[in-house]
Amino acid sequence: MTPTYLIMLLKSTLGEAKLNSSLSRYIGANVWRDGGDIRDVILIGKLVRKSDGPEQIELIIATMMKYGVEGNDC
Fold first, then answer.
1. Residues of the chain whose pLDDT is less than 50?
2. Which residues of 17-43 are buried (b: 16+ CB within 10 A; e: fewer)?
3. For a designed S-S bond to 52, which of 36, 42, 56, 61 qualifies (C-beta 3.0 to 4.6 A apart)?
């Protein structure tokens, strides 16, 4: 998946009211850069508030990449 596809999917999943397009792009690009997938993008998008800036988003992404669950076989 390309970062552009991740951004479009995040915006369609969360809706326009939750995050503006620049935050969606920022999340998608940074999660993609760190080797995440679409599930990470959607989860981070749900945790981010409109008032969060790049520092808070980076902290959420770093925490998810450090402690995220891999290989969840439920």
1. 16, 71, 73-74
2. ebbeeebbbbbbebbbeeebebebbbe
3. 56
Distances (CA, A) of 69 to 12, 18, 48: 24, 25, 19
Residue with tokens 């690009």: 29
Taking the C-alpha atoms of residue 71 and residue 64, their distance in angstroms, rounded to an integer, is 14
- Alpha-carbon gap, residue 55 to 66, rounded angstroms: 16
For tokens 């999943």, the residue is 13
Residue 65 is encoded by which pair of tokens? 């990449």
